[in-house]
Amino acid sequence: TIKTAQHRHTEKIQGTVMVDAYKKEKVSLAIKDGVFYKELADHNLDEIRSYGGSVQMTCQTINTFRHPMIPKILSFDNTSYTMDVIKGEEFQEHFNGLHKKGKEKLVFKLLLSISDMFRYLVEQRHPEPNKKHFRFTGRDIEISHNIMVDVYGNFKCIDFDSWYWKPKAIAYIEMWKVYDDLLIQLIKDEL
Known about the structure:
Layout: E1 16-20, E2 25-32, E3 35-39, H1 42-50, H2 55-64, E4 73-76, E5 80-84, E6 88-90, H3 91-96, H4 100-123, E7 134-138, E8 147-150, E9 155-157, E10 163-167, H5 168-190
Antiparallel strand pairs: 1-2, 2-3, 3-5, 4-5, 6-8, 7-10, 8-9
């Protein structure tokens, strides 16, 4: 089983077609021989293209990164990518299984890990000279469904369909949204 932000519930995925909740578009997913396959929804492809990017550029960029939260893309084409399946639990599932002090500790550990990943991402520069003001980030780095806690307790991002080069101001706004989501999670648990 695997969860992704678009589905909001556990599904057994075997070459199935799912509906992306964001735009209600059909998205193909599959897990076979330890590989996760994802076909990008049209709205994500359109957004990537609107910034002059492509799935190939996104996947090639991700594969140049050396950060523990960013796994490698194994293969890609114009509309899809494959990557290793991360063995572990979604952050939300792992979080829900902890007691209060364990939840606080996990959230702050994730805040440090995400801060380190964002620091790493803002240090990266677009390869084209006319896009030096662009930064690489994702629109939906949602803690509840797009981050896994692997079997060693490390955090891994699992959904890259909205990651690409964006103007710096937009990238920074999207990064702050992730912090807001984390803190809201912690506050909701207190209520």
